[in-house]
Structure to design on (151 residues):
């Protein structure tokens, strides 16, 4: 269920009514807790938080015309998803998140490589997501990205 919205505001306007409050809170949680330097935008039909070209001119190795993605959020058909590239790239961050999750949620963690899925909007642990957002600066993400993905 990929959106054709051109801006975060347009994306928010097209959400199903039962997802609006959770997506607004998720968006605010991310924007309020990401370290300075990340920028909000749209990519692949999702709200995306990136390292802008001003901080990292090479951009994303998979698509040179795109800024370096870090976190994306999307309202999909059956879930609200958070895609966190730092969790995918940093085993310590992944282990921290997996071990903290049960302290913040009564639901079982539904997670892929970088994707965290929430089937019920009320099950999103916003405090944990806020803590996760604070864990990596743009500079730290760039260093980790270059170490893992740039050849």
């Amino acid at each position: 269920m990929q959106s054709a919205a051109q801006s975060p505001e347009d994306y928010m306007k097209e959400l199903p009514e039962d997802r609006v409050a959770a997506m607004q809170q998720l968006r605010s949680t991310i924007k309020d807790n990401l370290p300075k330097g990340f920028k909000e935008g749209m990519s692949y039909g999702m709200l995306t938080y990136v390292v802008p070209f001003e901080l990292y001119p090479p951009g994303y190795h998979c698509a040179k015309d795109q800024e370096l993605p870090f976190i994306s959020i999307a309202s999909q058909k059956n879930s609200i998803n958070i895609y966190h590239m730092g969790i995918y790239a940093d085993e310590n961050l992944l282990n921290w998140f997996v071990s903290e999750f049960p302290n913040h949620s009564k639901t079982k963690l539904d997670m892929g490589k970088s994707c965290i899925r929430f089937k019920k909007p009320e099950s999103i642990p916003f405090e944990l997501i806020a803590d996760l957002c604070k864990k990596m600066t743009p500079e730290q993400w760039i260093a980790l990205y270059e170490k893992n993905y740039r050849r």
Summary: The helical segments are 8-13, 17-33, 85-89, 91-104, 126-134, 138-149. The first helix runs from residue 8 to 13.
